[in-house]
Every structure is written in C-alpha cells, then in structure tokens.
UniProtKB/TrEMBL annotation:
Organism: Undibacterium squillarum
Keyword annotations: Bacterial flagellum biogenesis, Coiled coil
Annotated function: Required for the efficient initiation of filament assembly.
Pfam families: FlgN
InterPro entries named among the record's database cross-references: FlgN-like, FlgN-like_sf
Superkingdom of origin: Bacteria
Family in the record: Belongs to the FlgN family.
Coiled coil: 11-63
Name the UniProt record assigns to this protein: Flagella synthesis protein FlgN
C-alpha cells in the first residue's frame, strides 16, 4: 500500500529522471554536432559529461525501483506498470509516458551518433588504405593497436 507521500516521492523521482533524460538529449545533440564538425576536443569533454548523466540516470532508476519495491511491486518495468495502474494519478502516468518517449528518442539519437562514428571510421580506414597502396608493409596497426610497419631494405644501397 502506498501513501500520498510515497506517490509524491515517485512523482519527484520521475520528474528527476525526465530532467536527466532531457540533459542526456542535449549531450547527444552536442555530440552529434561535434561529430559533424570533427571537433575531437569537444567529443572528449562530452564523453565524460555523457557518462556522468548516464550514471545519474542509473541511480535515479534504482531509486524509482526501490520506491515501487517498497510498495510491494517488482523492481522492473512490469512492476512499474502494475504500480502505476493500481496507484498512480494522471500526472504520474503522464510523467512515465514522457520518460518512455524521451528514452526512445535518446536511443534514436544515440543510434544516429553511432552511425556517424561508423562513417568517420570508414572514412579514416579508406584514407589509411590510400596511404598504404603500393606498400608491402601491410597493416599500419596490428591487433594490439601498436604500429606494425616493417622496414624493408632499400634497393641499390650498399650496406657495409
């Protein structure tokens, strides 16, 4: 059984999660701009900031699951739906739907950014391939990430 204070706490938790998710959207948007602009410095900063927001989201989700578990529901999405169906007011339902929509949007933004990264990697690999054409040195980097360029003797040079 939940009290109105417990429901208010859940409402606050959902509001905090939605706020953090909106912050993640901004970081993903900034990341996309940095990828398009080839701004490596910003990407490094954004990675740390994005990880911090993701850590906060994980913490808030755990808090939300603890709240519904304390009310006797499972600590998962189905427990959340059951809790909302049996206890929540329309504002909590709306917050939950907004959070679900925001999460889907963040997944899509992350997918787009992943595609941009994959395209940048392919372009970089193509550039490396151009530099390596006609060379018998093989791959520039080995599986360990270390350079694997082998030197070959220069023809026409007398070594004493």
């Amino acid at each position: 059984m939940t009290t109105s204070a417990g429901q208010q706490t859940l409402k606050q938790s959902l509001q905090q999660e939605l706020s953090a998710m909106q912050e993640l959207h901004q970081k993903l948007h900034d990341e996309q701009n940095a990828l398009v602009d080839d701004d490596a410095g910003s990407l490094i900063q954004l990675l740390d900031q994005k990880n911090e927001v993701l850590r906060l989201l994980t913490e808030l989700e755990k808090n939300r699951f603890q709240l519904i578990n304390a009310a006797g529901y499972r600590k998962d999405a189905s427990g959340m739906r059951e809790f909302l169906d049996q206890n929540a007011d329309s504002a909590e339902h709306a917050l939950w739907q907004d959070l679900l929509s925001a999460t889907e949007l963040a997944k899509e933004k992350n997918r787009v950014n992943g595609s941009l990264i994959a395209r940048k990697l392919a372009q970089n690999q193509a550039a490396l391939n151009v530099f390596q054409q006609g060379s018998d040195t093989g791959s520039l980097y080995g599986p360990s990430g270390q350079t694997s360029i082998r030197s070959s003797p220069v023809k026409g040079v007398i070594v004493r």
